[in-house]
Design a protein that fits this description.
Chain B: Its main location: nucleus. The complex is a heterodimer of chains A (221) and B (174). Chain A is globular. Chain A has 221 residues and is of the alpha+beta class. Chain A contains 4 helices and 12 strands, in the order ββββββααββββααββ. In chain A, the strands form 3 sheets. Chain A has a 5-stranded antiparallel β-sheet with strand order 10-1-2-11-12, with helices on one face. In chain A, a hairpin with a 2-residue loop joins β5 and β6. Chain B has 174 residues and is α+β, with helices and mostly antiparallel strands. A 5-stranded antiparallel β-sheet of chain B has the order 7-1-2-8-9, covered by helices on one side. A two-stranded antiparallel sheet of chain B has the order 3-4. Chain B has a two-stranded antiparallel ribbon with strand order 5-6. In chain B, α3 runs antiparallel to α4. The chains are: A alpha+beta (221), B alpha+beta (174).
Chain lengths: 221, 174
């Protein structure tokens, strides 16, 4: 692909995961930045706190991701000035979709997972493709390790089908600690088999008490 | 589309305590159309040796026939069954690639990335036959449900020193 003179993207690798609970949301991403078979840094955050109850994790081309996060943070600040309140997670979800589709014919090479609490205080996760198609789900994984992680999350979290009537909540009945343990497990597994995932895991937990962050070591090879 | 993705396949094998399990999906497709739902991908070489072949279905069947032919000749000459390590060398010689004897599990097919993740999370060493059966079935099911080219049920074989247990796993038929 890079033999073409016009290929302007590169994939910096990495994996992002988010899980929605009844009254919390866990958003996690590894901190490795790669290019080709090399590691650029072991200590780069892929997570951006856009609002007090809204956190975005993105993997893909870091140049585009930095620009996207900056764009969204600026729009959130404008919203704050105009509406005298912070943006809710579902509102940011729509804004992100529109921002991505705006560049439909020169996309942001960013694979996003948005997590947080909705206006009722329930956990919510929104998952995106590179051009803005999005869906609210109970959990999601994006990035180089996503194909390794999603089947395990399916097996452990078993989201109800959107075709069921009456509609059932997508949030997991797991407790906050159980969800965090699951996230640590799936990242440990992904780190074993995906060369682009590893070094450190950054976990952000959003609940009604606020937002907290923790770091776990992963394999560095 | 790569020729290895033409028919769709998912094959996984796991090592347990004095036992092993080998499993595959049952779909045979032609690109996006499903034309078979009971396709066999796991074949017996002898009582203690099975091989799962993913990839292009016609080549998998041809390769199996050639391997059985070579093994039968070996049996005639040596008057015994081939050891798995020896058989692995035979397979690698036929395919021109280096073989690896895994201590935990091996995966193959269009669902291989999903299988890697699922097996890595669910596997633990020294499982007994019942636990191994559960683990390999769950790993296979979760992985093929995320791959549109494999699925339509699963076929699992668990082999211990005394018996061989075959089972068909119910799964999403889509």
């Amino acid at each position: 692909m890079s033999r073409r003179g016009d290929w302007v993207y590169e994939n910096n690798g990495g994996t992002c995961v988010a899980i929605a609970g009844a009254d919390y949301c866990v958003i996690a991403a590894d901190t490795r930045l790669s290019v080709g078979y090399s590691i650029l840094t072991r200590d780069h955050s892929k997570i951006c706190e856009l609002a007090d109850k809204c956190v975005l994790a993105s993997s893909g081309f870091q140049g585009d991701i930095k620009a996207l996060h900056k764009n969204l943070a600026a729009r959130e600040l404008l919203y704050q000035h105009q509406h005298n309140k912070r943006m809710s997670c579902p509102a940011m979800a729509q804004l992100l979709s529109n921002t991505l589709y705006y560049k439909r014919f020169f996309p942001y090479y960013a694979f996003n997972v948005l997590g947080g609490l909705d206006s009722e205080g329930k956990g919510c996760v929104f998952t995106y493709d590179a051009v803005g198609s999005y869906e609210r789900t109970g959990y999601s994984a994006q990035g180089t390790g996503s194909t390794l992680i999603m089947p395990v999350l399916d097996n452990q979290l078993k989201s109800p089908s959107p075709l069921l009537l009456p509609a059932r909540d997508a949030v997991t009945p797991l407790s906050e600690t159980e969800a965090i343990d699951l996230v640590k497990d799936v990242f440990a597994s992904a780190t074993e088999r995906d060369i682009y995932t590893g070094d450190k895991l950054e976990i952000v937990v959003v609940n009604k008490a606020g937002t907290r962050r923790e770091y776990i070591d992963l394999r560095k090879d | 589309m790569s020729i290895f993705e033409y028919n769709g396949s998912a094959v996984v094998a796991m090592v347990g305590k004095n036992c092993f399990a080998i499993a595959s999906d049952r779909r045979l497709g032609v690109q996006l159309q499903t034309i078979g739902t009971d396709f066999q991908r796991v074949f017996k070489i002898h009582d203690k040796l099975y091989i799962g072949l993913s990839g292009l279905a016609t080549d998998a069947q041809t390769l199996y026939q050639r391997l059985v032919f070579r093994h039968k000749l070996y049996q005639l000459r040596e008057e015994r069954d081939m050891k798995p390590e020896t058989f692995a060398s035979l397979v690698s010689a036929l395919l021109y690639e280096k073989r690896e004897l895994a201590k935990d599990f091996v995966v193959s097919g269009t669902a291989s990335e999903s299988l890697y993740g699922a097996c890595e999370s669910m596997y633990k060493p020294d499982m007994g036959p019942e636990e191994l059966f559960e683990t390999i079935s769950q790993a296979l099911r979760a992985s093929v449900d995320r791959d549109c080219l494999s699925g339509w049920g699963g076929y699992v074989l668990v082999v211990t020193p005394t018996e061989v247990r075959e089972s068909v796993i119910k799964g999403r038929m889509d």
